[in-house]
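Researcher: Structure prediction, please.
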Amino acid sequence: MFYVAILEARPSGRLQYANRFPLVETCKPEKTLQWLSDNLKTTLALSGHLIFYKLKQFIAITVGGQDAKLKCEPFINEDTLYIFGTPAFLKSTFQDLHLDHLGDTEQECICLVAIWTPSSDEYNSRATASLLPISEGNFDREAIIRAAQSRPPPSTGAKSTEFISTQTEQRPDAAYNYRPPELAPPPLAIYHPVFAQFRHSMAAPTETLEFTSQELDQASTFIDVSLRHYPDKTSRLNALQAVITCSGQKFWGERIILVDNGKKTQPDGGLAISIRDLPVLYSTLGELKNGGGDGGCDPSDQAQFVKFACRYGETGHRLLAEAGLAPRIYYCAFDETIGLWVIVMDYVEGVLCNGKLVGGEAKSLTRAIKLLHDNDLVFGDLREPNIIISKPRESVCVVDFEWCGPCKDIKEGGNVVQRRARYPTNIALSAEYNWAPGVEADGVIAKEHDNHRLQMMV
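Model: Predicted structure follows.
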């Protein structure tokens, strides 16, 4: 017996186990997830919206499913679901998802997860005391874009003196990178598989990892001090030297080291292990830097832009990048470990389009869309925030290729190897977006839709 686990999306952003539903009667190959969604809403009296994830590894549960809630606890939010599963479109059939023979076994497993977002009426009908507070630190995308447009250029904006004022919870455009610790980002596992492996290893109890309360407290203090921003190198050094290690040393104490021929070297600081009548062992030595962009150079020389996406139009991005109409790609691949596309590209300086394009800007965007269409590709999300004016009145750079893809199914030997691009199931369809007629959730993306949006921008 196989089940879909239903997790309720709470106002706080967390997911809460709500129910499970057997799939044995619904696993006919031609049935779609849209049909399953309607069935769940009718049978379980659910109002609102459902989206589905297929688990990479099915979760075995006991007969009767008493432990189903416990087994679903790792799915605390949608970010963690990307690690354990992959999004599934509502128009996908059970055959498309390779779930058309699940009724052939008596083993009880969860193979699908449905995230249920109740309607506003559903929330309003509940007791106010039962609702978790909504974080006041959330900002809509447009507010973030407006704030980002007022930032200073990267050469000055990346300095620690700037971070003290820009890296706060009150800033819509703050980078959620734990600096300071209050700015908590998405799960660390999306950045590299080694972090997911580390989390799994640390979650397993072991007798070899025993720490005293003093060691844990000092480690926590060191992490907190290290993550905060300081106006200069001296302030950071003073804060670090106030952290005392378990051995009684200052964490980053100044060191004068004698070398050959009576010469001395003096690094910014480090840690040493000293035993009488034996040479001093330095476990840590190095130069202290207050921040990556404090050397008077442009931080774009130190890092590129990294993007994570559930889907990505790599073909379209590379096509426009070769024509100088999109950022250069250094790496682009789907990582099975985290269930996301990872794209490393050039950081493009410029300003976001916030109105009609003029002169060479309009010609540049028109050329980009024509190049895509000539290669039977569509862009889909052709809106102002995805167009960077790299050279005013001369050219633009197209970004955000998540919706980009072929305008028709691609076949090899009679088999479909890549389906035509579709709009996401959660697309915002309000009038302010000025979408073309025919644009709908999970609907196919047509060249006419791109042309409609192009006319609105040039």
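Model: Residues 359-374 form the longest helix (16 residues).
Researcher: Thanks, that helps.
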